[in-house]
């Protein structure tokens, strides 16, 4: 995407260490997400059919089928971001899911334990504890698993299925890993890509048949086309807004895109979704006109690789800002979530949907991941890469060492810190601080020698 970016006007700097200037428009996304969850919590009272699913963004299919959906990872991330994950994690550990298990899975499996207990309490005439957010999910009628690149994720819903006494229907979508080993195979190209795309598309048609059987209703193909029309437009606006952030100083950063993950990941495909990303883009455009920067004293541009540590989002954003380091881009934000909207044909959307599901950021070879990282670093003028080695997510950390080597050969400085997606006990503030300081000092030294 080639955009002519306006030159930012002069902007008065604040004192070093000022807080990041976060986008105000992302608050609208938070309101939409809250409305979504609050509505889901009342699904049983409204007589709605509920599916629990993990992995790929299958929600447009559920939307068209007239089913309400609960994305397990999304709810686990929400609990962690609100620092309300403890009851679910304790319930999961009490049931036998040790703390070395993926904390997304452990959190939402703990939610399943609490949900089942709440349903049993209601059936016995007792009042469930609705003050615990982790216990408010409606019990599922169906399970659908659609996990790429993660062996734990591929078993996640089978474990939930067993927890609910093997009495609920379960459908599983299988995704082949995109190895890219042959010269003709690569990102969005080659025989491997074509075979895998059609293989997954065929399974999506089978999933739709599964939903028709268990709902007793014909699938609404026109509703799917409409949902994907909105999702495609939202994806386009999101990419256009991201590209505007290549300007120096950046009008928005990685942390703003972290705040926008939930809307593009699992909210309904409708006009509200499009309006949200149009608002985000409009605010960024206005910042460029007014010369408003995300960091008042931007000195460094970094990339962030790895899933977000949801317990520490605010702390991390502030820590990088204190060091005048603008985190520009990340695998989890810029190479995920309907990020190739040109693949979507709203009139015939299944193939493009299948291809996006294959493009899960953990479903590529380390070589491909490294190439994508270097492409983004060049586009955003990045000098260093921060690797978040996620303690309980092996699929996110696989390949990071190779990616770091590729980045170093390209002249980029790198650092690693250990953390987790939803369990802050694995994270140490001091480790991040000391390693970030060392990396920025090295970047300064390189600049002086250049």
TrEMBL record:
Pfam family, one: HGD-D
InterPro entries: FldB/FldC_alpha/beta (IPR010327)
Transmembrane segments: none
Domain of life: Bacteria
Keywords: Iron, Iron-sulfur, Metal-binding
Entry similarity comment: Belongs to the FldB/FldC dehydratase alpha/beta subunit family.
Name of the protein described by the UniProt record: 2-hydroxyacyl-CoA dehydratase subunit D
Organism: Sphingomonas floccifaciens
Phylogenetic placement of the source organism: Bacteria, Pseudomonadati, Pseudomonadota, Alphaproteobacteria, Sphingomonadales
């Amino acid at each position: 995407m080639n955009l002519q970016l306006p030159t930012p006007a002069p902007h008065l700097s604040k004192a070093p260490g000022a807080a990041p200037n976060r986008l105000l428009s992302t608050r609208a996304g938070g309101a939409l997400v809250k409305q979504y969850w609050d509505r889901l919590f009342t699904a049983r009272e409204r007589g709605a059919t509920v599916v629990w699913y993990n992995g790929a963004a299958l929600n447009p299919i559920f939307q068209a089928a007239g089913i309400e959906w609960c994305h397990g990872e999304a709810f686990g991330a929400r609990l962690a971001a609100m620092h309300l994950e403890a009851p679910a994690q304790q319930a999961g550990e009490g049931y036998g899911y040790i703390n070395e298990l993926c904390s997304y899975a452990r959190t939402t499996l703990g939610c399943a334990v609490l949900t089942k207990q709440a349903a049993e309490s209601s059936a016995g005439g007792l009042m469930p504890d609705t003050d615990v957010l982790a216990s408010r999910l409606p019990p599922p009628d169906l399970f659908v698993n659609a996990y790429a690149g993660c062996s734990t994720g591929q078993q996640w819903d089978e474990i939930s299925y067993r927890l609910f006494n093997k009495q609920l229907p379960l459908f599983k979508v299988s995704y082949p890993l995109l190895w890219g080993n042959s010269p003709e195979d690569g990102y969005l190209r080659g025989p491997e890509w074509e075979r895998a795309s059609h293989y997954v598309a065929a399974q999506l048609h089978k999933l739709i048949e599964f939903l028709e059987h268990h709902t007793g209703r014909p699938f609404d193909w026109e509703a799917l086309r409409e949902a994907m029309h909105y999702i495609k437009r939202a994806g386009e606006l999101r990419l256009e807004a991201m590209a505007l952030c290549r300007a120096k100083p950046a009008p928005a950063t990685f942390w703003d895109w972290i705040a926008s993950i939930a809307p593009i990941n699992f909210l309904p495909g409708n006009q509200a979704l499009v309006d949200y990303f149009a608002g985000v883009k409009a605010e960024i455009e206005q910042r460029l006109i007014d010369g408003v920067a995300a960091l008042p004293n931007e000195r460094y541009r970094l990339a962030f690789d790895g899933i977000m540590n949801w317990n520490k989002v605010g702390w991390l954003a502030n820590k990088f800002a204190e060091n005048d380091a603008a985190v520009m881009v990340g695998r989890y934000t810029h190479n995920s979530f309907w990020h190739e909207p040109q693949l979507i044909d709203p009139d015939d959307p299944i193939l493009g949907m299948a291809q996006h599901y294959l493009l899960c950021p953990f479903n590529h070879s380390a070589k491909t991941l490294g190439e994508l990282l270097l492409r983004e670093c060049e586009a955003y003028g990045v000098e260093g890469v921060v690797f978040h080695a996620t303690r309980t997510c092996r699929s996110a950390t696989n390949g990071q060492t190779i990616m770091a080597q590729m980045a170093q050969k390209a002249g980029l400085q790198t650092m690693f810190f250990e953390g987790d997606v939803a369990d802050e006990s694995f994270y140490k503030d001091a480790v991040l601080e000391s390693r970030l300081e060392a990396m920025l000092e090295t970047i300064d030294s390189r600049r002086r020698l250049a």
